[in-house]
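dumping this here so i dont lose it
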């Protein structure tokens, strides 16, 4: 049985931290996993900036409530879920993702959890499992699934490379250049067609 594993931000939804950077006027928060491969380093950097500016979970959630999925993402996901099982594997946090999952018709999401103080400050984070995307794909494969994986960032490359079929979607020119063997797509219709072909293979 085949199962599709998708990244969330940049593939199905806008990047939450970029949206918050624009809303808060703090350009340093634009850095994402497209820019920084070391996720722990990136999150410590973000938490430090939030603390410096006195911002916490409430302010980020207010911005997230105004974010919609990328145009065509829900239709793409609905069509794909009629044909196969889909899991969104994201390094985002449950405190961020739930409003977006509602707008995507509640797909299955594997993500992480923020540590938040009583005052609402983000003090740390708890990863569901170490190297969560690769670990999840390996676990699915050990349970008898053939995985098809897609994403846009450095932290997606591991699960893409491990899978029987893997794709880049709306990735950066640098990542595409460094991974010329990975099929790369920009539009949901051609992306869906490629996944359907992989499902039939």
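and the seq i came up w/
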């Amino acid at each position: 049985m085949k199962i599709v594993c998708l990244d969330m931000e940049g593939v199905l939804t806008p990047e939450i931290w970029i949206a918050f950077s624009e809303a808060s006027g703090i350009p340093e928060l634009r850095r994402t996993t497209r820019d920084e491969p070391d996720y722990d380093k990136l999150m410590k950097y973000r938490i430090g900036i939030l603390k410096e500016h006195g911002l916490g979970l409430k302010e980020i959630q207010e911005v997230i409530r105004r974010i919609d999925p990328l145009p065509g993402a829900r239709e793409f996901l609905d069509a794909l879920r009629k044909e196969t099982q889909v899991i969104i594997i994201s390094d985002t946090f449950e405190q961020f993702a739930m409003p977006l999952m509602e707008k995507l018709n509640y797909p299955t999401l594997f993500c992480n959890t923020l540590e938040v103080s009583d005052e609402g400050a983000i003090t740390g984070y708890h990863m569901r499992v170490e190297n969560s995307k690769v670990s999840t794909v390996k676990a699915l494969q050990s349970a008898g699934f053939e995985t098809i994986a897609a994403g846009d960032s450095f932290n997606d490359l591991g699960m893409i490379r491990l899978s029987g079929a893997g794709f880049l979607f709306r990735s950066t020119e640098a990542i595409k250049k460094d991974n010329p063997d990975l099929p790369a797509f920009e539009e949901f219709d051609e992306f869906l067609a490629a996944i359907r072909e992989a499902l039939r293979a």
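Strands lie at 2-6, 85-93, 108-116, 122-126, 146-151, 165-169, 184-185.
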